[in-house]
Design brief:
Blueprint: H1 2-16, E1 21-24, E2 34-39, E3 46-51, H2 64-68
Antiparallel strand pairs: 1-2, 2-3
């Protein structure tokens, strides 16, 4: 719904403010909602993130290892 789209745009703006180029998937029917790419200062390397946006009133419990992978 529109709340999910709003959340995706919020995430997009947050990533862009941190130097990522972000492309939102049209209608979010694919495996990810956002594609974020951040160029590296090392030639030929970039950081690429495929992001599935989810909103929840209560955050799930995650392990320390999983937490390090969260943005």
């Amino acid at each position: 719904g529109s709340t999910g789209i709003s959340f995706e745009y919020t995430a997009k703006k947050w990533l862009e403010s941190r130097g990522y180029y972000v492309k939102r998937s049209f209608a979010s029917h694919g495996p990810h909602d956002l594609l974020a790419i951040k160029p590296s200062h090392i030639e030929g390397l970039s950081e690429v993130l495929l992001i599935q946006c989810k909103r929840a009133k209560i955050l799930p419990k995650v392990s320390e290892k999983e937490h390090k992978g969260l943005i």
